[in-house]
Amino acid sequence: MRKEDILAFVNRDWAAIERAKRLHWSQLRSQMTAEDALRVGDELRNHAHELHPDWPTEQQRRDDLATHVRVSESLRRVNLRRRR
Question: CA 74 to CA 78: how far, in whole Å?
């Protein structure tokens, strides 16, 4: 690598790049169906499993389930409050 290449990379307009990425993904997600979203999630899970075959561990699964239960209970309470 040349010094000039490294400097060009470091001096990029990172904020503009971040804005462009956010806009791109926002537009992409707005066009996705539920099936598309599930497929992307499954592809990400498969990729993570390829990188880390021992993932998720049983403890991580238990922790994840506990989080889902807690969020679900919180959402139910919010829904009950709105009905009153």
Answer: 6
**Are 49 and 55 in contact, with CB atoms under 8 Å apart?**
yes
Model pLDDT for residues 54-79, shown as the tens digit of each residue: 999 999 999 999 999 999 999 998 87
Alpha carbon distance 26, 34 (integer Å): 15
CA 71 to CA 60: how far, in whole Å?
A: 16
Q: How many CB atoms lie within 10 A of CB 20?
A: 11
Q: Is the pTM of this model over 0.85?
A: no
- The per-residue pLDDT for 83 is 66
